[in-house]
Design goal:
The chain is an all-beta fold. It has strands at 3-7, 10-13, 18-25, 30-36, 43-48, 54-56, 64-69, 74-79, 88-95, 111-112, 116-121. Helices cover 0% and strands 50% of the residues.
Length: 122
């Protein structure tokens, strides 16, 4: 059993930055950040394996950085250059796969946090 708790969300103006954290308990291997805007499907935006290998969705590449501190069992998402279209509930997720899935399908991840809201105003 894995428990995940996100924090760090908030309201910022366009161009601003936020850093999200996800504290985990239990065994975590592949970890990922997803987001869901009102009326839209949940979308995967970044994932990272235990050795630090990471992948990004094109929409956030070069603006967002995913990282993890394995000693603290914590996942991070540094978000720079935020845009109004980044407004969403952000979730962390994990699975027991050592290699993160190539697909961003949310059903591939077994455990989820409750989310933290990010709101970007223009």
């Amino acid at each position: 059993q894995v428990q995940l708790q996100e924090s760090g969300g908030g309201s910022v103006q366009s161009g601003g930055s936020l850093k999200l954290s996800c504290a985990a308990s239990g065994d975590t291997r592949c970890m990922a950040w997803f987001r869901q805007a009102p009326g839209k499907e949940r979308e995967g935006i970044a994932n990272i394996e235990s050795d630090g290998a990471s992948k990004y969705k094109d929409s956030v590449k070069a603006r967002f950085t995913i990282s993890r501190d394995n000693a603290k069992n914590t996942l991070y998402l540094q978000m720079n250059g935020l845009k109004p279209e980044d407004t969403a509930m952000y979730y962390c997720a994990t699975d027991l796969r050592y290699e993160c899935p190539l697909s961003w399908t949310s059903s591939l991840y077994r455990w989820w946090g409750q989310g933290t809201q990010v709101t970007v105003s223009s």
